[in-house]
Amino acid sequence: MQSEAGTLYSWQQVASGLAAVWAEENTREAIFDAVERRDAYRKRGADGKLPAIGSTVDAAKASVTNTIGSPELAAVWTDPDFDPTQKAFYYARVIEIPTPRWTTFDAFRFGMDLPDGAPTEPQERAYTSPIWYTPKG
């Protein structure tokens, strides 16, 4: 794919398929404003940026060491602001620790060098289907 920014090769593309922003109101203008200021659903530090997650990938060996994550996710959460008279929906999002990309595995397996700038360790995301709550009556 060619654009003003240059060439984007298929091996550079990784998509999760969903995007979310924190808009002040549910209007087109407010949503685009949120996109412009890159205000996504996230926990931010004092500087407004996401905390860095260290690399867990050894690209040369196409291997990963999990020293920062958990092999299993289990939690119970209760909405502290739950109001049984209001409609609501809930979903969970998780971010995986960085792992070798398929091109990194292939380069290691076939003894090839990756092109300069090739991504070696995407961070995958997962989203649950929403759980909808509708009050009775």
Structural description of this entry:
With 137 residues, this protein is of the alpha+beta class. The chain has a domain of 45 residues. It contains 2 helices and 8 strands. The strands form 4 sheets. A two-stranded antiparallel sheet has the order 1-2. The protein has a two-stranded antiparallel ribbon with strand order 3-4. Strand 1 and strand 2 form a beta hairpin.
Give a quick summary of the entry.
With 137 residues, this protein is an alpha+beta fold. 13% of the residues lie in helices and 15% in strands. The chain has a domain at 1-45.
Question: Keyphrases for this structure?
Answer:
8 strands; two-stranded antiparallel ribbon; two-stranded antiparallel sheet; alpha+beta; 137 residues; 15% strand
**Mean of residue pLDDT?**
77
Q: SSE string, helix = H, strand = E?
A: EEHEEEEHEE
Question: What's the total number of strands?
Answer: 8
Task: State Rg.
Answer: 20 Å
Largest sheet: 2 strands, antiparallel
- The general outline is extended
Query: Biggest sheet: strands side by side, in what order?
Result: 1-2
Give the count of helical stretches.
Answer: 2
Structural class: alpha+beta
User: Termini, distance in Å?
Assistant: 52 Å
- Level of helix content? 10-25%
> Which consecutive residue ranges, at least 5 long each, have pLDDT under 50?
none
Strand content: 5-15%
